[in-house]
Design a protein that fits this description.
Blueprint (H helix, E strand, L loop, with lengths): L3 H9 L10 H8 L10 E5 L5 H8 L3 E6 L2 H10 L4 E4 L13 E7 L7 H7 E12 L10 H5 L4 E7 L2 E7 L7
Parallel strand pairs: 1-2, 1-4, 2-3, 4-5
Antiparallel strand pairs: 5-7, 6-7
The protein binds S-adenosylmethionine.
Amino acid sequence: MITENEWNTRFLAGELLAAPPLHVVRKAFGFMEQPAASPVRLLDLACGPGRHAALGASLGWQVTAVDNSTVALDQLRLEHPQVATVEADLEQGFAIAPAAWDVICCALYHQPSLWPGIQAGLRPGGIFVGVVKLQGRFAAQPGELRAAFAHWEILHSSEDVLAELIVRKPAGEDC
Ligand SMILES: C[S@@+](CC[C@H](N)C(=O)[O-])C[C@H]1O[C@@H](n2cnc3c(N)ncnc32)[C@H](O)[C@@H]1O
């Protein structure tokens, strides 16, 4: 397992700092229509230095980003102070408030225990974008991510080295 300290070392060396947002995340954000009265609320889980949180913030969204790497969160706060940050271990039952988010992003982090919370945490019509590796350490099984959200509207799904998924929560669904 990669420990938090290992991630801190990698982020101190500049990993992901200048990386552009993943294409699939850009695509997912494009599916989100601005609610009439309030900014889009984005939750970025396992955000790293925050390339996707930063993208949401650049769109005027209200963004909360979660990670357990203090280095990554410091880097994110320095560059994008408007992003709210939460330092938390996502393996330890992280609580996501129900129907609180318009968009949830979880890129390059495989933690199936989060998926029920993600499903409950999105408001109906909300968008989830997930990316998991299918090879190497922490790989998901082929089809695993898609199967977990199979009852939602699938806006994009592809599998190669990575599994990418964009889904919309059905209107009227509570969880
Ligand atoms: C491959 S990076 C992806 C970062 C970001 N999502 C991106 O695409 O740029 C994986 C991230 O997961 C975070 N992470 C790993 N284990 C974690 C845990 N138990 N709780 C919270 N974050 C964790 C790491 O600190 C790292 O930032």
